[in-house]
Amino acid sequence: MDFASDNSSGASPQVLQAVLAANAGYAAPYGVDDWTRAAQERLSDVFERDCVMFLVATGSASNALALAALTPPWGAIFCHHDAHVMGDECGAPEFYTAGAKLVGVDGSDGKIDPAALRATLAAFPRGLVKQVQPAALSLSQATESGRLYEPTEIAALTAIAREAGIRTHMDGARFANAVAALAVAPADMTWRAGVDVLSLGASKNGTLACEAVVFFDEALAADMAFRRKRAGHTLSKGRFLGAQMCAWLEDGHWLELARHANAQAAALADGLAQAGARLPWTREANEVFAILPDHADAALQAAGARYYRWSAGRLAPELRPREGEAFVRLVTSFETTPAEVERFVDIVSGAGKG
Ligand SMILES: Cc1ncc(COP(=O)(O)O)c(C=O)c1O
Hints:
Blueprint: H1 13-22, H2 34-46, E1 52-56, H3 59-68, E2 75-80, H4 84-87, H5 92-96, E3 101-105, H6 114-122, E4 133-140, H7 151-163, E5 167-172, H8 175-182, H9 186-189, E6 197-201, E7 211-215, H10 224-230, H11 239-249, H12 253-274, E8 287-293, H13 294-302, E9 308-309, E10 325-331, H14 338-353
Parallel strand pairs: 2-3, 2-4, 4-5, 5-6
Antiparallel strand pairs: 1-7, 6-7, 8-10, 9-10
Helix pairs in contact: 1-11, 2-11, 8-12, 12-14, 13-14
The protein binds pyridoxal-5'-phosphate.
Pyridoxal-5'-phosphate (PLP) binds next to helix 3.
């Protein structure tokens, strides 16, 4: 029972087989190989337009390099207070942008509130030399609270960004889960809704280590080859990144994996709610946030279940755990089994009866 992270899962056998197949013979290094070219074509098909893709090995590099393409060192990047780029990347965005400032924006459930975005932007007037200058908006899809933006909500936020003369980045570490959950076209959730650059995550959902920075505006990608090389993310054996991305996208495999993860999260959320747990944020993709009695938490720990306790500070005051309760985050993956979910729920139900 491992619900600590979708990073706890391994890689999809189809992806592994593709890596093995790509191992045969010689191939041009540094990402000019046939697999990377094929991945680029596949991504353009998925997004229904030409796009420019750069593969890297981690989500943090993907976010930081994408943001660096959107901002000067004196720029401001607007993101939710809880965004991964804000608090969980050890300053990589600041490092790769050569010092741009991340500015937190309010909103419930990890989603940026449009009025709060307008108000925050207004506090950064253009031309005021004392202050960093508005440069980019970064949205996480899914958010750090496991919630999703509908394409119309994304479009509303990117319109505000455009009005302010700034571009939009999307942290899509769980983009596949979002597409599978909302059943919308990837294009509708990105460029058709005004997103300029997407950090498309694949490692949490079936690859070994492969993430794509996808530019919908080619002009923004002009310096990216240099940025990526300078960042040490231009892999000499780039064919293995290309092979992973190709296999992941082939015949909708990425969405099949994500649909499985989402379905397990749905079963987990339903089971926990029936067992009496409170779910302060609606489960939409592959993350479940639950408030459990301490004795259920103890029984789960004793049974070897893995998950993280989460910060209740992120919850609205009326939703926070009371004395004797634990707030936890549970993440499912393409490898989560119905039996794991059932056992977890059974333990919580049993603890309730005990
Ligand atoms: C929302 C989000 N963005 C980005 C990342 C970064 O991925 P990595 O750990 O590969 O750097 C993560 C990983 O947990 C994440 O949850």
